[in-house]
Amino acid sequence: MSHSLPQTAAPEAESVVTVRGLVRNFGNGNVLDGLSLDLQPGSFTALLGRSGCGKSTLLRTLAKLDAAPPGTVTLPDEGAVVFQEPRLVPWMPVLRNVTLGLRHPDAEGRGLAALAEVGLSHRSRAWPLTLSGGEAQRAALARALVREPRLLLLDEPFAALDALTRLRMQGLVETLWRAHAPAILLVTHDVDEALLLADRALVMADGRIAADIPVPLARPRRHGDPGFIALRSRLLSELGIDEERLAGQEPQRGATDSRPADSRPAAPGVAVGGYAMPAGAVAAPSH
Ligand SMILES: Nc1ncnc2c1ncn2[C@@H]1O[C@H](COP(=O)(O)OP(=O)(O)OP(=O)(O)O)[C@@H](O)[C@H]1O
């Protein structure tokens, strides 16, 4: 593993996000320990790492939900975030949820356009509690989209969805990314998801970016392509996953697991193709 890798990407004038030496401590050691990061406009980056390594802590800072020490983080004004749970206000119809807080003379028109883009026009007047899990996440995506963000943060947005809905949502996010070109930072536990969607995969460890791996694969991407397989091996290795043990335990490719993520076997924080890793496939922590 490349723990000695330098912190990620040299600064570029055009970065939409710049983080320098970010430290975050909750009283029990540094969760973020001098982390540095640059994201370029329109880039699609996946962020992986063991459970508890600080991915969501970083994301919360980039979402301006947690304050950062002065001078450590530069962010665009236009940012949006989608979480694992859709976080819709239950007493407001879908369209109102999408336009909530939007200052625009034609907020409703823009909200309807965003709902159309995610295929949810017919549910604009529905109450959030009547939506399916996938519909609710699409509404959350529309709420993010309507703000035309330069930075879109996705914190495991597909993790609670069944396998088929997850695939559809991944396709939708890729389509929206192509159409609107925000810089996307996707936190995921799923190595295949990272490689299907992102052009760059970051692995967090020890409170920093421990590996910064370009994903120069043509789209649409396929699991079986040699380049995909090679990058998958590299990422698993960076994450400390024993691929040989994994090969004996992973479900057959193409099978679907319709159970929600939280009912699958306990995982140490990494999955492949939507499947949680069996604990035995994970090497002893070396971070
Ligand atoms: N508000 C908080 N107060 C105290 N500790 C916190 C707080 N937020 C996060 N932590 C701790 O910081 C560490 C990193 O948490 P974080 O949620 O960022 O990890 P993660 O990589 O996103 O994990 P997972 O993949 O399991 O979601 C954990 O040990 C967590 O308990």
From TrEMBL:
Keyword DNA-binding among UniProt keywords: no
Decide whether keyword Cytoplasm is in the record. Answer: no
| SUPFAM superfamilies assigned to the protein according to its UniProt record, in alphabetical order | P-loop containing nucleoside triphosphate hydrolases (SSF52540)
Keywords from the named record: ATP-binding, Cell membrane, Membrane, Nucleotide-binding, Translocase, Transport
Q: Which domain of life is it from?
A: Bacteria
Q: Where is this region: Disordered?
A: 245-270
Q: Give GO MF terms, alphabetically.
A: ATP binding
Q: Which residues form the ABC transporter domain?
A: 17-231
Entry's family note: Belongs to the ABC transporter superfamily.
Specify the protein name.
ABC transporter ATP-binding protein
- What is the scientific name of the source organism? Azospirillum argentinense
